[in-house]
Records
---
Amino acid sequence: MGRLKTIARRTFLIGSAAIAGGVAFGVYKYKTPHDNPLLNDLPEGAAALTPYVLITAQSITLITPRADKGQGATSVQAALIAEELDVELDQIRTDPGAPSPAYYNTALAGDAVPFRSTDDSLLATTTRSVMDAPIKFLGLQITGGSTTVPDGYEKLRMAGAVARETLKAAAAQIHGLDVAALITERGAVILPDGTRVPYTALASTAATLDPVQDVTLRAPDQWRLLGKPMQRVDIVAKSTGTQNYGIDQSPPGMLHGAIRLNPAQGGEMLGFDATEAEKMRGVVKIVPLPGGIGVIADNTWRAFQAALAVDVDWGPAPYPADMAGHWSALSESFTPDQQDSRFRNVGDVDAALAEDSDLRFEYRAPYLAHAPLEPVNATVVVGEGRVDVWTGTQIPRFVQKNVAHIAGVETENVHIHALMIGGSFGHRLEDDVVRHATRLAMAMPGTPIKLTYSREEDMTHDYPRQIAMARGRGRVKGGQVESFDLGIAMPSVMTSQMGRQGLPVPGPDLQIVAGAWDQPFDIPNYRVTGYRAPELAPISSWRSVGASSNGFFHDCLLDELIHAAGADPLAERLRLCNHTPSRKVLEAVGEMSNWGGTPGPRRGRGVAFCLSFGVPCAQVIEVSDTDAGIRIDRVYVAADVGRILDPVNFEGLVKGGVIFGLGHAMNCEITYSDGAAEQENFDSFPGMRLYQCPEIVVRGLENADNIRGIGEPPVPPAAPALANAIFAATGTRLREMPFNRFVDFA
Amino acid sequence: MKLSVNGTEHEINDLEPDMPLLWVLRDELGLRGPKYGCGIAQCGACTVHIDGEAVRSCQVPAGGVWGAITTIEGLGTPEAPHPVQAAWIAHQVAQCGYCQSGQMMQAASLLAETPTPSDAEIDDAMSGNLCRCGTYPRIREAVKTAAAKLSEG
């Protein structure tokens, strides 16, 4: 118990300090509800019944503060509110709202503590709930970690229910009726005589009432929208070229900005000569920036051309100039001094592995760019004592604070207008583009400046996924896996990422071992150790974060040991698995893929499993070893998010996650030479192309107790399933990504 | 310089002939359906038609345009979508959606030339268009749905 208490206390410190050193704040503070930001400039006669529902005499607006970067966040947030509010999605508009502490993310707490998501012990639950206090207090309005659904699942339905009951109370008051006699449907209160009173007609009365707080959420079997196929609210705009993204923002009088930063990310600019660039057509201004220069011009292309024409003297990289230096830093990190965590330590690994074993392997995962297809961009206008920012961001309150600091205005005078994001994969958890755009705009007060990164600037200043190395060893006995010892070394993503927001992150970084220490297996001697490598190139959260590399390490080691034991890869994983929903997804892919059958000559089948973000996900991949190279024929994937809110979007995100995981495992890496990223565009960082895309068969299960998000969990099992399949087809073990270093792909 | 875009003639004076068509459309004419993704013909987000042929507008200099331009805005509208757009809506292809204007322009060009493409022909025609979200399975399905719709007349 003594040890457990230590962990709990330390956990609290990690989580809260990771957010801003907020442990000093009393819990009583977080119990005070945050102010409703919609009340700040409410039109006459309008009602903002909760921070999520705004009704005027003309319209109903649902506030969807989690950023939509393609995962369908806007739609699912709207549907959660609409389900209880009794409006249809074609009757409402959505608005991301203004940044506000009222929109804090509750679900982040759950993943900031060192308890397996499958752990429902009192200690685990208590610690998770304690973590909620500082996150609420600090008002972290963050989109990430597949938390939009778990965060909003009750909160948004509750917001809809409170608004609905308050509107009914307003109708009861106006018409002198008993509330119990009223029902609601399609945005109206229905009186006993059948009269429909639209919510919009009730707004001004409802605004005078205290919101009805005593509401009961409907049971899932009463749902109209949730759990059934829905049409995403953005699908028509995105199918007709009419969706407005950040890069399309064009306020009147706007000028265009480009940037050129030190190719060694974070390196200094020692000097520059812009004589030639200043003479170029359309160039309005060249602006020195921290680590580079910006150009303001009357057209994006002219700005790009001028940025390239500036002669710049760059300082060296603040990290090893070449890859050998990065890999040796990782290689040298497997030491007791650099041990960061050992949350999994069962049996006696040292005794079991005292005798040297042949079962000893090293694995590697490279830096990877997020490379969403919309390059990062932001439009900023600096006015008198106020700044307006149009951009897509996952961290609006940090952006607001940072812009205020740079521009020297009060935080509340920075107005963030959140726009649709053309892909992120974690990229929009960074805000350099907004900071630089603010500096450009400060050079021309009153003129809106849209800063667009060229693809080359975006990819080479991407804050890539962590580089990581793992060393595994094990022992098998009697046809079974008996000992499993995995050490993982990587720099801390959280330290690098939060450091750029000025936040210290003391304590172990769970991401160093996420997707490995927390797997639902019982192995007699089972140990997972995290080693903290020194800070190298600056890194950031990449779709599935630590699990993106660790899922590969853990499952590939398991597969090697199972092979050494002579056991069946699926049967042995099932035998070791101690968590029912996880067993069910493994059984599902076995059945879907007809696992017992033989795949045929020059073909191979691999299975992999990873539990990440609380979601067990299993995949079986079938490959052919063709004369043109490896062809990925089929992927069978099963995942369990507890409850699927939109089966159409669920299937799309699972397939997309599999393709994302496979494409990067096949052919993507960021490498540094002379301090600069060598991959600048999609010719050298291709990912998967359509002709390579396998048939993907998806099954969603609903056995898990808690509802979870599906954005990230399909990514980690894809790479190991592919590696295991290639081994089955060719006999070649791939222990390093990308695999095209070792095999060709058809 | 004269450009015909979506049936409208534009007289653009004093434009550098080497400015890529993409930036003329986006920044000079305000047509922002075609997207900038790579600038080197690797992603296809900027795909438009010139005389019905799918081209990467980031690689066509404004001075070298040889025919009438159609952008996604000219293919169809939310009120009257082209059959390809209707199929994209029906299959809910888009996730972030940023590549989809280019995907649909590519698909429309394919179907105009090859009304009932085989799986291999779809793969060949569509593989120059990158989708980072991984919507390829639905793109394949939507192309087939659009082909069926178009061949019904």
---
Amino acid sequence: MPAAPTSGSRLRLTALLAPPLLWLTLAYLGSLAILLLSAFWATDSFTSDVVHTWNTDNFHELLTTPVYRTIALRTLSIAVAVTVIDALLALPMAFCMARVAGRRWRRPLLVAVLTPLWAGYLVKAYAWRVMLGEDGVVGAALAPFGLHGPGYGTTAVVIVLAYLWLPYMILPVYAALERLPERMLEASADLGAGAWRTLRSVVLPAVRPAVLAGSVFTFSLSLGDYLTVQIVGGKTQLLGNVIASQVTLDLPMAAALSAVPVVLIVCYLAAVRRAGALDSL
Amino acid sequence: MRKRKTSAWRSAAAVCALLLTAAGCGSGGGDGKGGHAPDKLGKGEGKVNIIAWAGYAEDGSNDPKVDWVHPFEKKTGCQVNTKTAGTSDEMVSLMKTGQYDTVSASGDATLRLIASGDAAPVNTKLVPHYKDIFPALKQQPFNSKDGRMYGIPHGRGANLLMYRTDKVKPAPDSWRAVFDDSARYAGHVTAYDSPIYIADAALYLMRAKPSLGIKNPYALDQKQLDAAVALLKKQHKAVGEYWSDYQKEITAFKGGDSVIGTTWQVIANLTKAEKAPVKAVLPKEGATGWSDTWMVSAKAEHPNCAYRWLDWIVSPKVNAQVAEYFGEAPSNRKACAETSDPNHCAIFHADDEKYFQRVHFWTTPIKECLDGRKDATCTDYAQWTRAWTEVKG
Amino acid sequence: MRLSRTARVVLGCVTAAGLAIVYVPLLLVLLNSFNADRSFGWPPSGLTGRWWRAALHSDGAREALLTSLKAGLAATAIALVLGTLAAYAVHRHRFFGRRTVSFLLVLPIALPGIVSGIALNAAFRTVLDPIGIGFGLFTVVVGHATFCVVIVFNNIGARLRRIAPSLAEASADLGARSWQTFRYVTFPAMRSALFAGGLLAFALSFDEIVVTTFTAGPGTRTLPIWIYENLARPHQAPVVNVVAALLILVSVVPVYIAQRLSSDTAGGRL
């Protein structure tokens, strides 16, 4: 239980909180504020210099140009799809690792899940590019079933992003499942619940915050990605690409565009915070 | 409680200070002056910061045999720091930081850098090897202003049409294959991923739709831009992917994901070296192309070393090395004698002015029409960027 | 939980299949590092060891690795200090805005890298540049540390939730000074969480590319930046594969050690 404030603890609290908060405010929140503030400026269209005249033209353009809405929606759906796929994959995998596999196996399995995090994001994305190509491994594996590989495009982006962020989902879910006391599951069984019922009424509610915590990663990492799209996206463009293409040319517009993922993610974080997800991160 | 208040107050004050600095900094340039060219060179500053395309400033760290940076450092005592830029836009923004002395800018960046005053005029007398540069590269609209050179030409190349000889028949000789006929290769057409690619569509329209009256693919009024965008949107349906780097283009053509689209000579050569059945041609409409220029920053902290670099990089031997490594036509005519492949200049058409007359080098589109029209307003690069986002949808 | 045999088999299969999919691209990377074909053509046209030789002689890769290690270690060190302080504040004290702190700490990692990247870039340019601090390793470290703090914060926080504050109180009651309590009670209990958090923070920094792109100065090349630059070069892509293959092989060691050290938890939380 956190201690109730006393004057000594208040002093200590200040000493504890001041460095991280100062860092966060100066290095990060200040930067964000500068960026979002610059969304209200204009750009000299020829020189790309920022002109400091206060206006809301960028937001007006953002809201009235249909192509931005299309891109934002596409990005959002990809992020949701990636999150759902990762959750669906991570739940059985983490369950198996934490509850089904023998104790001896847990550590090697976890190492196996974590190791790919070190392989380099770009290298993995390029490996998928090779696999998804016209004469790649995926096509060859599907050919006997009369199927065709997805090729480069939105599907490929979803697959690769889901692949890249999967460990970020497995890790918190595994941690939650491992913490789940065996006696709770036994109690459920003693009360006559079948495995399915136990899963639904005991296990799932217990891992819900962990899944939401993992989703913070899968959702937000997908929402801002622009490199994977360039590698396997074919002709797809996402919010990240548009921001990246505007950064050097028209910083105020890029800043206005950045406001979209910022708003989406702040809303998402606020929503999952209620479910206690941030505590299980 | 007093302590906490103080710290909160202090951080609030710091944020305000940050915001004020942000608001007050950086004045919009745009007067086009951009510093002065020096009359003579002084002692080297011991250091030079360079922005370059990948492969333009090799120091042997990627391939020990490819190194023209260390010899330069040894000769001049100027330590080289290189920042590799991926796109012209990135180069422009890096130059704006004022941390760099020189940049290998392409024509879609040069005018912007001149106009914003980020690039300074260059005193070509201080670059002895300038005299050997092909005359056709001097005093061009993409590297000079009012008769003053704003940089030293480095090399050039055309954006060719490449196709898989086994999949594209009959052999195309016109850009029609990727525009009006693109549906034949639906899902396998590729195009360069940049707003400047709009000029390729405009170039095709110059011939295909003379009624539009396009004289220069970089000088499009709103109506002409709309026509080019409509054409590109049609092409978009057939595009498999847009490319921006070598590797992507090579694997795509090799694997057959792309069968037709724009390319550079060097990519065509490498793809052929990988035993893929491809061919690159300069279509009958001509082509767009790029010509890179080494520019000096108006805020250069190390101008003396920068000038030494400029002279070094266009000296025959180094110019030949870069041209061969990167795969482009060198700008120094004496470089042709120094290439390890004696046919390099022939393959890349380095001294073939007839060939390059058919190439429209990248130039930044600006409001003032580059084709000399006084009665029309042209679309600028910012509009092209937005149009490109629209095209990709 | 009593699972039927079928359920166990199905779960086992799903996990095995999942892991197989995770490793196929990595195996491909490994295989391609021996691929004689320069553009990772499939199937390989032949096997060769020349990329490994080229990679071992690549100064660029070595320097980039060194830069990445330096940036990662510095960022991790800062994150360890700041994250631990914040975790103690939030989990051992009650104050107004406590939940806001954890919310704010998550922001740097939750917001897209490109947004953080351009925000930091704009800020550094307006604030640091005028006082003569250019972009370089320092700016990269600041950027990385910012999003690494939350990782340490979460790891320490999870541990603090599990060890009772009464432990430290007992130590104090037994007459230990606060540094002694820290040295003999608190720190040993935190050690593995610190290690796990630090390792994950380091891994995150080690593979970061977007924020790095916007915060690195001239000549500051971390390994991901080196990879990015070289993948775009036709001559270099196979060498990149070798570096990646090496990283995968070498990384098993620290990950395994982390697992051993923190046997009581999942061995790290994101």
